[in-house]
Amino acid sequence: MGRQDFWWIAVLVLIAAVWRTLLSWAYRDAISGDWGIVALMAKHMAEGRDWPVFFYGQAYMGSLEPMVSALCCRWLGTSVLAVNLGTVLVGVWIIPLLYGWAFHIAGRTAARWAGLFALIGPTYYDYYLISPRGGYALILILVPLILTWSCRLALGTSGFTGRERLALLGFGLTMGVGWWTSQILVPAMAVASVILLASWLIRRRWTYAYLLLPLGFLGGSAPWWVWNVQHHWASLGMADALLAVPLRHGIPAFLGIIVPRFLDYLDPGPDFLWRCDGLRCTLRWSVAIGWSMILLIAVGFVVADMIRNRRVAGSRISRLYLASALSFSVVFVLSAGCSSYALTRAARYALPLYPVLVVVTAAGVSQVGRTRWGRWGVRLWGLMLLVFFSGNIREVWGLLHQGETSRDRTAEAFAHFISEHPTEAIYGPFMQTSWLNFYVQEKEPFVDLPTDR
Questions:
Q1: Which member of 84, 202, 305, 328 has the lowest number of beta carbons within 10 Å of its beta carbon?
Q2: Given its phi and psi angles, is residue 242 left (phi above 0), alpha (psi -120 to 50 degrees) or beta?
Q3: 8 Å CB contact between 388 and 266
């Protein structure tokens, strides 16, 4: 990559940081029970009261992303915006990672498309990059980081120089952080491990520097191991979700329900779509089907181009980076399809697939765009996405000008009630009341009795 690529990345990162900061403020009212837990974690860490290893009440979802929110609370004061800014700061790194991944697959044009797709994505994608839910923004950046780093090591690291040994240690640390953050990253770690192992077997060279990988992994995942030794390996309870669903049921549910929900660009969408359910439904499926068709065409064009230029210098690099993306998508879909999460209909479980969708689609668009009809198809598809995105801009513009939100009024009413009627605890549904613990500064605990966290 050259200087102009770094300028492109810098501009896109700056736009993303400003846009998502505006989003995090505009949607400060769109919080849930999980947000309330993360906000409490950040508040406690900023005050030095507690250092949770995992999301409160769970034996999974590491606390690294909430730690960034805690730093923001420490610097800017404890507030809703400070908590959200932690996730924004983590999420902006998705742009340079996807830009570089697409660049290695299909060149500069593909990289720029990937940067744009990383800047403007589906509603759920934007949502988890502006509003913390424990670690989903971190998961999004760890997928491309782990896969591309493994390709870089496989192509150029023999382990004999100081810089290469440092890279091996850093990669091991990253893998360890991934294990601590969430086991949803295991497919990415598995593919990365196979890539490295295959490259070392082909070279038939061994150095003790390779031991830096497991050492780094143990260092990055140390909080996971220490906590589980002290809590009777409670995190292993997640294994019950694996192999819980037959693939013939899980894969159709995952690909037919969860992935299309995640790729929904029409929420909120332009106002006129809300007044016509049939049109909204038709356009939603048009976007999902259109993306699927472009993705299939993209893979075909990219693979054909690589076969045609297989003897050209650099084609081996492109093939490896593309293979990492496609291999991960297959392994991830298989692992998701046999787990109980495939039947939850929760769009967030498709998040790790989005980086692959971005880089492969961007590579394909750059190839398809070279043909006459392909250019018109790409322009039409891009125009559709811009029309849908205009609805988001319009809604955000309106929200930015609102004053006190309904959440603020609710919290103020509860704070007034508590000041006049001291209580030991207030019971209510978790998703509706847990966020109030943060809003009223923990003056009285709001507790969901059946699922008390």
A1: 202
A2: beta
A3: yes
CA neighbours within 13 Å on the CB side: how many for 68?
Answer: 19
Confidence of residue 137 (pLDDT cuts 50, 70, 90): very high
- Between helices 94-106 and 108-119, what is the axis angle to 10°? 150
CA-based max dimension of the chain: 79
Residue 41 and residue 52: Cα distance in Å, rounded?
7
* Rounded Cα distance, 438 and 443, in Å: 9
β-partners of residue 62 are: 54
At position 160, the amino acid (one-letter code) is F
175: tokens are: 């893998």
Instruction: Give Cα 133 to chain centroid, integer Å.
Output: 11
User: How far, in whole angstroms, is CA 246 from its chain's centroid?
Assistant: 26
* Residue 34 CB contacts under 8 Å (≥ 6 apart), including other chains: 55, 133, 134
- pLDDT value at position 90? 94
The whole-angstrom separation of Cα 346 and Cα 400 is 28
What value does the CA radius of gyration of the chain take, rounded to a whole number of Å?
23
Alpha helices in 339-405 (DSSP H): 354-368, 372-400
Please report where in the chains the tokens 């960034």 appear, as a residue.
68
Contacts of 47 (CB under 8 A, 6+ apart): none
Strand, coil or helix: 427: strand
Identify whether 66 is preceded by a cis peptide bond (ω within 30 of 0).
no
**Residue 16: CA count within 13 A, CB half-sphere:** 27
Q: What is the mean pLDDT of residues 331-355?
A: 86
Q: Are 288 and 415 in contact (CB under 8 A)?
A: no
Would you tell me how many other CB atoms lie within 10 Å of the CB of residue 447? 18
Q: What H or E segment, with its residue span, contains residue 447?
A: strand 446-447
Q: Any residues with CB less than 8 A from the CB of 414 and at least 6 apart, and which?
A: 426, 436, 439, 440
Computed over every residue of the chain, the mean pLDDT equals 79
Candidates 393, 388, 432, 383; CA nearest to 410 is: 432
